[in-house]
Structure formats: C-alpha cells, structure tokens
Amino acid sequence: KQEVTQIPAALSVPEGENLVLNCSFTDSAIYNLQWFRQDPGKGLTSLLLIQSSQREQTSGRLNASLDKSSGRSTLYIAASQPGDSATYLCAALTYNNNDMRFGAGTRLTVKP
Amino acid sequence: DVKVTQSSRYLVKRTGEKVFLECVQDMDHENMFWYRQDPGLGLRLIYFSYDVKMKEKGDIPEGYSVSREKKERFSLILESASTNQTSMYLCASSWVTGQGFDEQFFGPGTRLTVL
User: Fold this and answer.
1) Chain A residues with CB inside 8 Å of B88's CB?
2) Residue A59's pLDDT band (boundaries 50, 70, 90)?
3) Using an 8 Å Cβ cutoff, are A111 and A82 in contact?
4) Mean pLDDT to the nearest integer, A31-42
C-alpha cells in the first residue's frame, strides 16, 4: 500500500528566501503526483500536477519535480512571500487501483 | 475555472441525527470524492463515484453512505451521526483518464460538529 511522507512537518523562513518542500512515496508505480495548498480551515487548492511521464512542472514562482526511481517529489518556491504561508500537501495516484494517497503536509510560515 | 461547492461551511448536529452533506461541481467531471480530514490522520477517502449511480468504498466507509443521482451532485449521508464523525469534510471532483483520476479539484470544506 502506497505511503506518502512529507518532511519537515513545519518550516519557518524569512521573506525572500527560496525553499524546497519534500514529498516521498514508497511505490514508484504512480500515475501522477499532485501538489496542493491549504489555508487554515479551508479546502485544498491544486497547485501543480505532474504526470508520471514528466520530470517537472512550473507555475509562476513554483516548480515541482518528480523522480519516480527514487520515490521523491519536490516543490520549489522562489522568492517566498508572507502570502505563501499555508500547509502544502502532496498526493500520489498509484497505477491500476485508483488509489490516491496524501501526505500529512508541511506547514510553511514565511515571516515578513 | 473549475468550481466545486459544498452546501455548508459549518454544521452543528446532535448525536443520532441524519446528516446530509451536498457537493456540486460545474465542470462535467465523471469522478467525485468525499474525504474527511482530521489532525494527525490527514485526508482519508470515504467514498468515490465514477459515474451517476455508481460508487466505490474508500478507506473509511463505515457509518456513511452516498448518493449520486445527477452527474454534478454527490451527497454524503451520515445515517445516525456520532461524535467521532466530528471532522472537516472535503469534496473533490476530477475527469477520468485512461489510467485513472486526473487532477482533483476540491471544494471549500464543511466543518461538521456532532454534539
């Protein structure tokens, strides 16, 4: 059964810093991997979706990479801003069983 | 833009009440999902539906049922609410692809408290 891990659980950085959030998965037979942002008490907002055939996806200051062989995905945030403060979750969809597993999330705080 | 709406942002019910949570999506997605999110346990799938009147159990279906009479609407039903069903409930939808689910889009969530 797929397990998805996000480390660290919480991260605090000063404004302007570039940062990397990590996502690890145990079963490399994934169909896609999706990154989400969640603000307190709110739903999930889709940030980036990487298909298994892709290595990375970019949207504005965000760049997500995927390395299936090592079971890892990273979300790179450039020039962080206080408005980036939120919890970031990754989710991996495994082939053949439509099993989508979520990580527990990394709570990011960007200090002005 | 894809829009997924949920009928209530906050809901307070009594133990034993029957509770209906409604979700509507406007993108003609085939798949719809109900999750619950609890601190320390993350998101867990309750049920999903891949077509009208079709449903599949997720990880934690006990105590819940679902209904999908129309493609755009997916309802979660708590037959007899209990305090351990106090949680944040999240609905999502996606297109279906050849291999499975495509990008999932989430609603704003319903915070349910059962007293």
Assistant:
1) 41
2) very high
3) yes
4) 93
The closest of A4, A63, A48 to A28, measured between CA atoms, is: A4
Mean pLDDT of chain B: 93
- Chain length of chain A: 112
**Tens digits of per-residue pLDDT, B80-100?**
999 999 999 999 999 877 666
Question: Between chains, do A44 and B90 touch, taking CB under 8 Å as contact?
Answer: yes
* Residue of chain A nearest B58, judged by CA positions: A99
Q: Is the peptide bond before B39 cis (omega within 30 degrees of 0)?
A: no
Token pair 């944040």: residue: B88
Number of helical H runs and strand E runs in chain B: 0, 11
Contacts of A46 in chain B (CB under 8 A): 103-106
Beta carbons of B90 and A43 less than 8 Å apart: yes
Q: Which residues in chain B have Cβ-Cβ distances shorter than 8 Å to A98?
A: 48, 100-101
* C-alpha distances in Å from residue B17, one per residue of B22, B35, B60, B78, B89: 16, 20, 20, 8, 17
Q: Give the CA diameter of chain A.
A: 45
Q: Which amino acid type is present at position A48?
A: L
Residue type, A39: D
What tokens appear for B57 in the block? Answer: 């159990």
B105: nearest CB among A42, A46, A105: A46
Q: How far does B5 lie from chain A, in Å, by closest CA?
A: 10
How many other C-beta atoms are found inside a 10 Å radius of the C-beta of residue B86?
A: 16
Q: Looking at the complex, does the CB of residue B98 fall below 8 Å from at least one CB of chain A?
A: no
